[in-house]
Each structure stands twice: as structure tokens, then as C-alpha cells.
Write a structure and sequence with these properties.
Number of strands: 2
Protein name: Ssl1498 family light-harvesting-like protein
Transmembrane segments: 34-55
Order of helices and strands: EEH
Oligomer: single chain
Structural class: alpha+beta
Keywords: Membrane, Transmembrane, Transmembrane helix
InterPro entries: Psb34-like (IPR048028)
Pfam families: Psb34
Radius of gyration: 25 Å
Number of helices: 1
Helix content: 40-55%
Length: 56
């Protein structure tokens, strides 16, 4: 941890910064997984809305 002191004796603590890295483009199988998750989430949301309308 990096600490500095100003002229009044007040301490300022700074966290260590992590190393930066670039994200990699997702592979084909990861992209397919994201599509399936989106379809599943859409089906759940649609069914919840339709159940809500039918109950009210």
C-alpha cells in the first residue's frame, strides 16, 4: 500500500493498482453460449409477463 503524508500530518492511503490487460474476443462456443443464455432469459421474462397479465 502506498501512503503519503501532507503538511498537517494527515495520511492518505492508496491501493496498489492491478496490471492492465486487454480482454480477448470470445470464442465461437462462448458466443453460442451467450446466445442461448439470451434466449433462455427472454423466455423466462416473457412467461413472467404473460403470467402477470393472466393473473390480473
Amino acid at each position: 500500500m502506498y501512503t503519503t503524508t501532507n503538511e498537517d500530518g494527515i495520511l492518505n492511503n492508496y491501493a496498489a493498482e492491478p496490471k492492465m490487460y486487454y480482454a480477448e474476443y470470445p470464442a465461437i462456443w462462448e458466443q453460442r453460449k451467450y446466445v442461448l443464455q439470451g434466449i433462455f432469459a427472454t423466455l423466462i421474462l416473457t412467461s413472467l409477463v404473460l403470467i402477470g397479465f393472466s393473473v390480473s
